[in-house]
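In response to reviewer comment 3 from the previous cycle, which asked for concrete evidence that the modeling workflow produces usable outputs, we include below a single protein chain processed end to end. The sequence was submitted unchanged, and the resulting structure tokens are shown without manual editing.
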Amino acid sequence: MFLGGKSYKAYVKEREEASRIYSEAVSQGASAAHIATEARDSNHFTVSVNVEGNTTAIFDLRYEEFLVRRNGLYNHAINLHPGALVPKMEVVVHIKESQKITKLFVPEVRTGNEIDATERDAQNSKAVIRYGISKREVTVSFAPDLLEQERLAEVYELKSK
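The workflow returned the following structure tokens.
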């Protein structure tokens, strides 16, 4: 986490202790963050944040995941539900493969818990795809502006009712 240009490195604590430390920091009005995962679904993150007003906060969450190839294809889904509009949000995915990447499909953002995209889904026009020189590496960036976040939030609310 970067606050006001200063870097803070995260550390791993037991669930209860981490929650207590975060709650104490919030009660004192301090800027703090808490990232939790579900034991049975370790690639599902919940991020809680308390940041003082007029402070720039940047969160850099990195994880690696081994993907299984099915029928010659990999499938990876990222669901975003920030709970509030974020002035500058960006999701960056780096893909490294031992073979050339010949096909890459980035679907429109899902507003539910769907995980399997199909080629019938529309390609995400807001995603930027950059191939490496060898075609064995790809970087996909998605940075929804506030209008796009509002649109997605409205769709999510309609589906939740």
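The two ends are 34 Å apart (CA to CA). We consider this sufficient to address the reviewer's concern, and the full set will be provided in the supplementary archive.
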